[in-house]
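LOG
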Amino acid sequence: MGLTVLHAPESKRRTVDILFIHGLGGSSLRTWYMNGDFDFLWPKKWLPEEPDLSTARILTFGYNANFAARKGRASLTIGDFANDLLFHMKYNYDNDGKMGPVPIIIVAHSMGGLVFKKAFIHGHLDDQYQNITSSIKAVLFTATPHRGTNLAETLSRILTSSIFGHSPKEYIRELTRGSTTIDELNDTFRHHAAKLQIFSFYETLTTPIGPINVMILEKHSSLLGYHNETPEALMANHHDVVKFSGQDDPNYRSVLGALRSVVSTFQSSKVNENETGKALEAIKEWLGVVRSPEEDLASLRSVRKTGTCRRLLQKHEFENWLDSDMHHILWAHAAPASGKSVQCSYIIECLQLQQKSCVYWFFKDGDVQKRSLGNMLRSVVYQLAVEHGSFRRALIQAMKSGIRIENADARAVWRNIFASRLSNISLDLYLVVDGLDESESSRTFIDLISSINMSQNRIRVLFFSRPLSNITKAVQKARRQITITEVALTDNLEDIRLMASDEMEYFLPGEEFKEFKHEIIEEITSRSQGNFLWASLTLKMVVNCHRREDVKRVLQATPDGMDRLYD
């Protein structure tokens, strides 16, 4: 269990870590060699002999995925295995050195790919593991059930009825096609995976299971369908897809080629990354950037329920804005507590997934730093510098020319840094801003963005707010200069229904309560009047009840809506 080092070069020569993660029923060693012969343990025996990989440290991770274990052990989940993986990656090291200082490549088989995805998501959301996950640059998925497998349900039934004391495993249930775990992993992982190099190898032969041969994973279940994914077929069944007969085995050559390709990109980009990092640090200090909106984005992502926030993408106003070939502003407005910030975070991540150049900010009343228009512009400028080398070089020139902006107000930052430097650069840009009504000056923001006059660029701005009169007046004035479209976010009841269903999933378990729970979900949805805060507070009271009578009493005592809080 835990991490095992299979090969370690001298610490000063180490340039990359390659970590192997086994799948269901496998082990940290046995999964990776053929016919029970240790001489075929290719990560240990063959990879270090490859010239391109001689400076790679090679490790393998083991966890208790033995589905034939007897009853009495705790029922573990994929999330438990993922947390164990993160812990060992950060804290389990010896003289060979800890993980993080050099790039990390993951090679995962079967369920091991899901364990990695869950760990990658958790690591991005937990400060103590972010340095680990940020070092993961590539993953090789081998026969990973991204969309689940129907055989998982069969295996779970067999273990449940076993006369030998076997017990069903939670992580097997999670592998079932269409399970909540599978859906949530796919919905969340794609928001973190844009910068990963991804190779997905899929099986093409059936696997013997008892007296029959079965295709455990069809091709479509082994592929993510991402733009940064390279799919490749291997002539092997599910178990043998990571077991090779020799160094001339075509399947081994395919996997080796992927590893070589990834490592070569590290070597060519190392010098450039060092120079870029120094430049960005200097720009960040010069701009005085103090807050990163990534924290807000991650926080909103963590509360967003699977399947929500998709209606705005289907509105023709949004589609026209997205595909506009000119400067265009879209104002999305809705009542308080109607889910605007969560909706905004979803749009940002959708744009990022589409590889759009997207910069963003979340205004927050009550936080001096987050309500500042100047801080918003400084952050946006820095985000552009991170994404675009030409803009970064323009900022470096501005720094060298002696321009000082530490005490500059928002208009000065816009005039001297944002607009003036962008005007000479060809750029297709999306700016997404949440909570404009919570900024120090919504009118100034609208005045600035409506004055955009850059012939080489297309800048599309999307901002979310309440439909306040001062914003309405500023928008009417700005329409003389730029195209502005409004869209009202009024149809959020389905999202509230999904949230309520998720919160009540484990409330009053049992088939006899199914209809009662459905009635409660529908009542909360209809009485919320589109207010997520009301629905959330009501749900918290409901799930603490133990009897039907208590639930009915809570609902009867709770007034509809929360409009009076915003009068």
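LOG (cont.) second protein
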Amino acid sequence: MRTRRRRAVMRHGAPGVPESRMVVSNEKKGVVIRRRRPEEAEAPAEVGGADDAAKAAEAVRSDGTVPPHVASSQAPSGGAAPVERVVPRGTRQPLHSRASPHPQEVAGLAPVPDRPRPRVEREKPAVRAPLPTEDDFAAMFEGSEGERAAGPAVQVGEKVSVRVVSVGRDALFVELGGKTEGIVDRREFEDEEGVLTVGVGDEIQVHVLQMGEGTIRLGRSLGRQGQGAAALEDAQAQAVPVEGRVTGTNKGGYEVEVAGVTAFCPHSQIDLEFTADPSEHVGRSYRFLVTRCEEGGRNVVLSRAALLREERDAAAEQLLETLAPEAVVEGTVSRVEPFGAFVDLGGVDGLVHVSELSWARVEHPEELVKVGDRVRVKVLRIEETERGPRIGLSMRALGGDPWDEAFERYQVGDVVSGTVQRLERFGAFVELMPGVDGLVHISELAHGRRINHPKEVIAVGEAISVQVLSMDPRRRQIGLSMKALAEDPWVQVARELQPGTRIQGTVASTREFGIFVEVPGGVTALLPLSELPEEEKASWRRTYAPGNAVEATVLHCDAERRRLTLSRRPDDEGAEQRAFAQWKQSGEAGSEGLGTMADLLRKRGS
């Protein structure tokens, strides 16, 4: 059928394909007619119009010859014989090639000039990959099985980070990487109440305990998977923790039952801190590191502190990556010292200075915190040192600043009450409210007294009333005064101690020019050396030692200048001086002086 169709095409042409677009070739199985390639196509004729070109094409026979009537009717006037070209059957030469005349030329039409046709780049069809064969499937399957069998490059005892992919009743299924999975005993991640502390998707740190054919067993410590001295030797060599139970104490430490063997743990290795009561560890189960395993398991030494230090360092490294100043965190008081309290933040300790415990004054941190207390603190600073990070913390920063409230509550001139907190040589600090202290300067303690130390006037813990003299919010200072609320003693002294009055006092101090004496009324008087009797001047320092009682006569009192002068000279010797002092104090002396001798005689005669 196909052969007949090919022959029909050769005789009559392919339907729908003009002969000018066809190429005939002879292949192995017969004649093939195909479309002409773009490079074999002829340029269309333009001379004579489209109708003439169509008629000329129709006049050409299928075998490439022109009928005689067409050739004679269209022959040139020169009488040239018609040209007939026969294309041998079975060749690949096109019917209208460049070497042969164009049909229009054969038909006697005007020759067609050559016109280049644009070359159209056709998109090449995509090359399909060959379908895999059975051998290819076998090779891929063997590669997948090899990859699964190889798994990650881990060794027994190695500490790895894995991800929980499934939770079973007795085990956790984890992914080590790639397509390799492992098994972890579920009880290792349960708390004391049996509640699982991890879930699907969590990252956990475990040790490779056993690698079997297709199974990898992991765990935090060597538990029931290993028993006997051999298991402990492997645990020591691979640094894998073991789980043991403290059964008792002895002179140097603790007896621990682990892997069916009785081991020893020194006192210093049971915890990071000193344990005052060793019995508190008896009956508890811990994870240990095997530090020594000798004599076939008869000499096994364990350490829990080494494992705790390793865990603490890992936690500290993770904490320091996120910890920053101004952060508020929780911690546990680990140690209390006179200068402050150390707080464990989870692997790293910070210091709360005694001044940062509270706004109120704290003599010792034990007044507020003790070891084991859970506290909230604010990070003030983090300093890197050779011995590690130094973290400054504060508890009082989490509360309101009492100084802001104090400056709103008090004003200059207010009279307030407070308690004496401490005494210094320059004055006394008085607590007005928790965290706010004011200063009573030594000069503001009392009127008219020379005070060497505030303890001469007040005592710590005494409740007093003071007046606000000054306030400095920027420097957080409040100035107070006690003497501003007391009556000025010089008013009473000027009224009661007139010249010639005999008084008793106590020697306060001595100088080269005289003796200072404390007299009733809270004032200090001066007894000049010139006012001592002649017999006392030679040994006056021994006679008038500080603290000795002394009796004297008021010689002069000046309340405005706050001066009180005494005398111990006999009455007849000091009478003139006392009379002169009274006259001067009365104001009878004028600016003109005493006058002339005649004025004095005239005044006496009158």
